[in-house]
Amino acid sequence: MKTIQSLAPQNVWKHFYSLTQIPRPSGYMQPVTDFLLNFGKKLGLESFTDEVGNVIIRKPATAGMENRKGVILQAHMDMVPQKNNDTVHDFEKDPIETYVDGDWLRARGTTLGADNGLGVAAILAILEDNTLKHGPLEALITKDEETGMYGAFGLKAGTLQGTILLNLDSEDEGELYIGCAGGMDVTASLEYKEVTPEEGDVAVKVTLKGLRGGHSGLEINEGRANANKLLVRFLREAVASYEARLASWEGGNMRNAIPREAHAVVTIPAENEEELLELVKYCEDLFNEEYSVIETPISFTAERVELPQGEVPEEIQDNLIGAIFACQNGVMRMIPSVPDTVETSSNLAIISIKDGKAEVKILARSSSDSMKEYLVTSLESCFSIAGMKVVLSGGYSGWQPDVDSPILHAMKASYQQQFGVEPAVKVIHAGLECGIIGANVPGLDMISFGPTLRSPHSPDERAYIPSVPKFYEFLVATLEQVPLK
Fold it and tell me: Which candidate in 115, 145, 171, 380 is catalytic?
């Protein structure tokens, strides 16, 4: 049986294996930070963290390459912690268990962490290899990209010395990205006083799972089901037709991941329980029919649970369900001049309603600042009408393309020379750190590229093994051909 260590190029995969053994979910960065610093220091390289916790490692130019422009190799150290409902895994303690499935590397029941672990692994391989030819190098490995790009936001001008930034966080080998969407976090919240369930009511927990989920930037255009959007359809009908009352709701756990699972507890008159169970079965069949081509089998089940002490007041419940039902989710508009690329979208990512507090978290994206503002305002209006307080945070503008970029021209020529075809040059709908870093450090010439990954931000995340040698060879060749200062 193949293992990571047996894959080529071994100098990349061995470092990726090391990263799989280090817990590194967003927000839990100290173990991987220590690993990276120790790695650089053991090589005798200048290694330090900046004031927000980004790791910077500097490697001098090789002999004869001192007159080349300085290159910043950039990736992020954290990974998205997503697992299947039946998988027992503690992302702050347990290593990621991987296996080779034909041409793909996968994890058992969890995210793989190839986003962006393979980018970090490639950087470590470059830093370690003294046979390569390159100008002055800096590794910039940022923290907490997945939850808010906090490392990129905190990067201060003057920290870096290079003028070219190679971001290794794209997910299609053979494509060079020169622009990305901007984003905004939208959080709607409301506090309420719970009321006591009616005498004679029973409580039923409904659980929706089995959805594919995925990256809310890269895969938002694939029409995948959103667990919160499916669940609200059931809840609205249960309330309207069977006198159900909402006690609690939990769905999704990451802003940038399409929610795969959601569950709610409702109370209902005992005499209506059987009809409610029939509605659950009807919805399960309906959802599977609607998404048969896109999703794997969707599971929607119900079970009797202990009657909760409190539930949401009826008027507030109706307002919440109405707002969630009406909330914009998915693709809003494609780029008019590039109709195969998403311009504007939103992800109804996280819903938590329990213990007297309701909270809804959405990630809005757009490569157009005006369309982003329009989308955010419409989301704000939707939840304000329901009486919720709406807070906007973490906003950033998109990275605007520069088709005259010197490093772009050099990399296009290099790829053509190596592989006999031109790389595709694209703008990506996902949020890359390039836009934020470029705003904090003006004047950088930036390109994003990487190996081929699929379904990042979900337990179906996988890395296409044959793409990794090409990605790494292209990176090495790029460093050899960096323009002169």
Answer: 145
